[in-house]
From TrEMBL:
GO terms for molecular function: metal ion binding; phosphatase activity. This is HAD superfamily hydrolase. Its cofactor is Mg(2+). Keywords: Carbohydrate metabolism, Magnesium, Metal-binding. CDD domains: HAD_BPGM-like (cd07505). Gene3D superfamilies: HAD superfamily/HAD-like, Putative phosphatase, domain 2. InterPro entries: Beta-PGM-like, HAD-like_sf, HAD-SF_hydro_IA, HAD_2, HAD_sf, PGP-like_dom2. It comes from the Eukaryota.
Length: 245
């Protein structure tokens, strides 16, 4: 059995508590885009999370176009993506916090130096870097190990497409079977598992009443073990390393 030597972390609501802040920031912009095109829907940060968790803004707009039969010209798409990035980064810089307990686990992994650590996100690179810098995680993830489905690929995409994980493995020189991913969403878990990477699901940031349901969702998407708290991470990783899951 191959030795696990790489751990690939999703960013939003896995390393940092960003989803709520980010969705609040982009609800206004999506509502504006819909109003301009006479689409009779109105989103709040909360309803956006329910409908689009795990997708980047480009992915949300693509879904909106399909769902409501609207058209967004390529130039407008690029303009909106930049506007959303700016609005979200401003919110994150003001109020972002790390996920509870993740700092201790990153410190422990860094001290052991047994694993290559990397971030693999759907979000734009500028936003991911702003997030990890705000909470001091950039010491664990220097620039060359941060990957974005929106920015790092020749053709921008979003999870659940496995392209960003396959790209990260190639750049890092790692094989899927010697890597582990940590993901909090269905789309992220699908992305990692479709790339052949064993995935730890994390449901900590969800409301207590929703955690059991999300555990089922992540397991159905392919997560081999699910944790509710970062303190469970060493045990979850050990299960994979021993070949128990």
């Amino acid at each position: 059995m191959p030795e696990i030597n790489a751990i690939l972390f999703d960013c939003d609501n896995t390393l940092v508590l960003s989803e709520e802040l980010a969705f609040e920031a982009c609800a206004d912009l999506i509502n504006q885009i819909c109003a301009e095109r006479n689409v009779p829907v109105k989103f709040t940060g909360e309803t956006l999370i329910t409908e689009f968790v795990g997708q980047n803004f480009r992915g949300m707009l693509t879904t909106l176009q399909k769902t409501h039969g609207i058209e967004i010209a390529p130039d407008d798409m690029e303009k909106y993506v930049l506007m959303e990035e700016d609005a979200v980064i401003a919110k994150l810089k003001a109020a972002l916090r790390p996920c509870v307990g993740v700092d201790e686990q990153l410190q422990a992994l860094e001290a052991k130096k047994q694993h290559q650590l990397a971030v693999v996100s759907s979000s734009a690179l500028r936003r991911v870097r702003a997030s990890i810098e705000k909470v001091g995680h950039d010491k664990y993830f220097p620039g060359d190990v941060v990957f974005s489905a929106a920015t790092s690929l020749e053709k921008p995409t979003s999870k659940p497409d496995p392209a960003i994980y396959l790209h990260a493995l190639k750049v890092l020189g790692k094989k899927a079977e010697e890597s582990v991913a940590v993901e909090d969403s269905k789309s992220g878990t699908l992305s990692a598992t479709r790339a052949g990477i064993k995935t730890i699901g994390y449901v900590g940031p969800y409301a207590d009443a929703k955690q059991e349901e999300m555990e089922g969702v992540l397991r159905s998407a392919g997560a081999v073990v699910v944790m509710r708290d970062w303190s469970e991470f060493p045990g979850a990783l050990a299960k994979i390393e021993k070949g128990e899951v």
